[in-house]
Write a structure and sequence with these properties.
Structural class: alpha/beta
Shape: elongated
Distance between the termini: 67 Å
Number of helices: 8
Radius of gyration: 25 Å
Length: 290
């Protein structure tokens, strides 16, 4: 077993046609060890001294019969094996220490596992398909290695942004949790927009209000337990209306927009949105009594 803090100067992966697994694995090791030199080979050189992945039947390969499988049944590919061993290092300076295990687990479940599953089963994955499209066309006479490195650069950008978003979610959780504690009448008021669903969904909230990037404020209905449902949708008569028409039908001055899906409204002020949420609650209660 390799120590987690070992620094590698050279790495080996397979040559030929590339896939999301070896591409994202390469992006990951380059993030871990920026000076590493990766060689794409058909066979591992004798006395190779470096990290070897997606080839060679070693610790970071998954083509052997006894390749490891997660407890939930999703088989590991090279990307997942590398992530399991080294993923925590990428969070060392980005997350609080007590959050790192959860961050590693979340990222494995949301990002790594779908790619591992596709590589092992061919089940289909949009991101994997995009990476695959970097390969030369069947009748294109170009150097495949050149396209491999283009794919790796793309994958590394995706990986860096996705990791950054996950870390930002932990920061958002702190803001949202504080707002949930101050919730009144099942309406959460956020001081700034922050990703709120992971925290709010665990509460009894029906609406979340936050400053809009377009100016004014937005109010959003919290999703219900069933897919596509809302705990308290905005009134049907508001759906798809805006400006004067919406003000007339809602009798709320300053209410500017209601999405046709009835999950979001926009208003001039926070209080306008609060009023809209309370009116939605009133109409829902009234309809339930009928």
């Amino acid at each position: 077993m390799l120590p987690k803090d070992q620094c590698f100067k050279i790495g080996y992966t397979h040559a030929g046609r590339f896939h999301a697994d070896d591409v994202f694995s390469t992006a990951l090791v380059r993030m871990l060890w920026p000076e590493i030199q990766i060689q794409r080979v058909m066979e591992i050189p004798k006395n190779a001294n470096g990290i070897i992945y997606d080839i060679g039947r070693g610790e970071f390969d998954h083509h052997q019969e006894d390749a490891p499988v997660r407890d939930n049944g999703v088989p590991y590919a090279a990307f997942g094996l590398l992530w399991r061993k080294f993923g925590s290092q990428l969070f060392a300076s980005k997350c609080a220490e007590d959050k790192i295990p959860e961050a590693v687990k979340r990222f494995d479940e949301s990002f790594v596992q779908p790619l591992d599953l596709d590589d092992n089963t061919g089940c289909g994955n949009m991101l994997a398909s995009i990476i695959g499209s970097f390969n030369p066309y069947w009748d294109e006479n170009i150097d495949g290695d050149r396209n491999f490195w283009k794919a790796v650069q793309f994958a590394q950008t995706v990986l860096e942004r996705k990791l950054g978003f996950l870390c930002s979610q932990f920061r958002a959780d702190t803001v949202v949790e504080e707002a949930v504690q101050k919730m009144e009448d099942a309406v959460v008021r956020l001081p700034v927009y922050a990703p709120w669903k992971p925290v709010v969904i665990r509460s009894e909230a029906q609406f979340v209000i936050y400053p809009s990037q377009r100016g004014g404020f937005c109010a959003q209905a919290v999703p219900g337990k069933e897919e596509g449902s809302l705990r308290c949708p905005f009134p049907m008569s508001w759906a798809g209306k805006e400006d004067d028409e919406l003000e007339d039908v809602s009798n709320i001055s300053g209410l500017r927009f209601c999405h046709k899906g009835r999950f979001l409204v926009a208003g001039d002020t926070e209080e306008v949105c609060v009023t809209a949420c309370k009116e939605a609650q009133r109409q829902k209660m009234s309809s339930e009594k009928e």
